[in-house]
Structure to design on (317 residues):
């Protein structure tokens, strides 16, 4: 646990420094003539710098940042002047819905396909699954998303083109709103799922193949155990251990892919907020969003360690 606390402390420092090491300045974005918030004059710029504390020395800015974190205050967005906490709270449920749905589907599909494919290595279905998922894994997610949009939203007009729900859908019934949100979720979740499922499938398949000649399987067959029991209770359980760690690690990768996917589908989650805040050099929003992501990834890795020990008590020593 101490290692995770130390990791979070290091992430807080990095999270503060990285936005300030990027080229550009948030005040430049506010006072630029092409900006909707254009303000003219050196006095206006100085007032903005003082208001957001950017005119202070870096150590003072960091100290103020730590004090704010200690109070649970993530600051105010430089681009919108809204509290960063409110911006994150408004967009986080959409991202959790997208990432959670994708991780659950990808893990289920990858595990089942990997178990079946590895248990019957070299068969026709194994080859089909291996080739198909390897091809999908190497396909750029943003390109796949664009193709799906063109086919299902533009050409066939079966699914919505953008957003997380239909505008002015507050008048819908509860069931109608669930269906509406599900229709908007389907394509972005599908794009994230296929990439994640490929990694889970390959690792699970490799684990199953390595279990095929294991002594405990030979002993189980000698005892007359059913193939289904050998397949799932013996081979699959042992092959599952690396997948637990992979699922936690995939959270970091899915957040990166989520930013691109949310831009492609104009999905109202954290991905769009992160993209816009980086473009505007909005330090508080960048810090808040990336800190939330970093803590989530560390927490999932800690949870994976706990699950790993439960599945394999030998690692608890």
């Amino acid at each position: 646990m101490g290692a995770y606390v130390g990791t979070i402390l290091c992430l807080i420092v990095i999270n503060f420094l990285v936005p300030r090491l990027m080229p550009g300045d948030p005040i430049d974005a506010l006072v630029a003539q092409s900006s909707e918030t254009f303000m003219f004059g050196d006095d206006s710029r100085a007032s903005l710098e003082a208001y957001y504390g950017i005119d202070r020395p870096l150590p003072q800015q960091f100290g103020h940042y730590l004090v704010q974190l200690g109070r649970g205050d993530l600051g105010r967005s430089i681009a919108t002047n809204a509290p960063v906490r409110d911006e994150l709270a408004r967009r986080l449920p959409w991202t959790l819905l997208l990432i959670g749905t994708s991780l659950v589907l990808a893990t289920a599909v990858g595990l089942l396909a990997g178990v079946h494919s590895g248990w019957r290595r070299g068969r026709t279905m194994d080859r089909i699954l291996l080739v198909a998922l390897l091809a999908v894994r190497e396909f750029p997610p943003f390109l796949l998303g664009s193709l799906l949009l063109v086919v299902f939203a533009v050409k066939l007009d079966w699914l919505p083109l953008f957003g997380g729900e239909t505008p002015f859908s507050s008048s819908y019934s509860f069931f109608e709103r669930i269906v509406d949100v599900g229709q908007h979720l389907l394509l972005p979740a599908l794009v994230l799922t296929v990439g994640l499922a490929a990694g889970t499938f390959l690792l699970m398949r490799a684990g199953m193949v390595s279990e095929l000649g294991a002594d405990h399987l030979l002993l189980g067959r000698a005892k007359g155990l059913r193939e289904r029991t050998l397949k799932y209770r013996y081979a699959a359980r042992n092959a599952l251990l690396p997948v637990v760690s992979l699922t936690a690690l995939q959270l970091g990768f899915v957040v990166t892919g989520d930013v691109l996917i949310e831009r492609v589908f104009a999905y109202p989650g954290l991905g769009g907020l992160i993209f816009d805040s980086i473009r505007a050099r909005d330090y508080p929003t960048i810090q808040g969003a990336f800190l939330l992501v970093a803590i989530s990834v560390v927490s999932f890795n800690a949870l994976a360690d706990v699950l790993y020990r439960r599945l394999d008590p030998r690692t608890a020593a």
